[in-house]
Specification:
Chain lengths: ~180, ~190
């Protein structure tokens, strides 16, 4: 069976939306923890951050499940580049999952659920280990910086393929190959 | 003469027996350190510190000779909201990783009569120590049903957050915190 020319359309859409959401969530996350008590965003920013995060978590889990049944387009680069690339992508997925879990654990240590856009509430699991909110908070922050770091490398690698190697790696993800 | 000496010794010994040392019953949780602060000026927000320890000595015949010290584990702050507790433990407020302990040590006790006391002492919080006064009251004392002897007090004091270097702006109505202490001591 021939590999497809491009990534499937649904994956392209999810990829770029996730990229936007991750960058936005990172910026909002950094900004909102320093809001003053009387800021009009003091309550809304964390509410939206948590809502968007939980929606992205569900989308990402669905994406990973679908991805296992998706045939990828052709790969470029030598063996070493290809294994580094696989490793990098797995690390990005792993960090995303770590960020989802740690974020959830910050807010639910007292058993409170998390309201998603006032649509519904995801129940809280309570305190699973001591100092849960603080530890989860640190993990959430470091993992977020790690993810942004990897995303930068990921983007630079894509540009390298596109502009230096002049192969179709980036075009496969824009659907224009 | 002999009688007088014995009398004096008896008097002394009864004095030392009366000025008893008590350990605050945190094991049985017959003690609590609570706080409350105004929220926006519209209501009271209450919380507590779950882990603390302390001891006091008390002589009902000579209350002004009493003393008390309490050490609070600031990490154990509990306002029944994980996100808020995390914020209160952070550098914006108590900075508990840097200042894991708060402490009160009495320096002088004034007996106001009618079981009322003024407890003067030094309170250390967020690395800063200030002299405070706790308005205290003896609730009661006596034998417990299990062969021990207990005495209990409660006291309240109000502190200004800025006196302890905590300057996060919670609004004009929320600059002071009222701390209340309820302790039951078991005689040692």
């Amino acid at each position: 069976m021939n590999s497809p020319k491009n990534w499937p359309l649904w994956l392209i859409a999810v990829h770029w939306l996730s990229a936007l959401v991750v960058i936005g969530m990172f910026a909002v996350g950094i900004w909102m923890v320093d809001l003053t008590y009387y800021s009009e965003w003091y309550r809304t920013a964390p509410h939206w951050h948590k809502s968007v995060g939980l929606v992205l978590a569900v989308v990402t889990i669905g994406r990973l499940l679908m991805r296992t049944r998706t045939q990828r387009p052709a790969r470029y680069g030598n063996k070493l580049e290809q294994s580094l690339s696989s490793l990098g992508h797995m690390a990005i997925y792993a960090l995303l999952v770590i960020i989802f879990i740690s974020g959830y654990l910050i807010s639910t240590a007292d058993g409170r659920g998390i309201e998603v856009f006032n649509w519904f509430t995801v129940p809280g699991a309570g305190e699973l280990f001591t100092d849960q909110s603080d530890i989860a908070g640190e993990v959430h922050e470091y993992a977020a910086f790690g993810l942004i770091g990897l995303a930068v490398i990921h983007a630079l690698a894509a540009f390298k393929h596109h502009f230096i190697n002049r192969d179709a790696t980036l075009s496969q993800m824009t659907g224009r190959h | 003469m002999k009688k007088l000496v014995i009398g004096a010794l008896l008097g002394l010994s009864s004095l030392t027996v009366n000025a008893a040392d008590y350990v605050i019953d945190t094991n049985g949780a017959h003690a609590s350190v609570n706080f409350k602060i105004q929220h926006l000026g519209y209501s009271w927000l209450t919380g507590r510190f779950n882990d603390f320890s302390g001891k006091f000595s008390y002589d009902p015949a000579k209350p002004e000779a009493s003393s008390i010290s309490v050490t609070i584990d600031t990490d154990s702050l509990d306002s029944n909201h994980a996100e808020r507790d995390k914020h209160l433990r952070s550098g914006d407020f108590l900075a508990v990783s840097k200042y894991p302990e708060a402490k009160f040590v009495s320096t002088k006790i004034e007996d106001l009569g009618g079981n009322k006391l003024k407890v003067y002492g030094d309170f250390t919080l967020h690395g800063e120590t200030n002299a405070i006064v706790i308005d205290a009251q003896k609730i009661g004392e006596g034998a417990d049903p299990w062969g021990g002897y207990r005495a209990g007090f409660s006291g309240t004091t109000t502190i200004a957050l800025k006196d302890y270097g905590i300057d996060y702006n919670l609004g004009p109505a929320s600059t002071h915190v009222e701390i209340s202490l309820h302790v039951e001591g078991i005689k040692q």
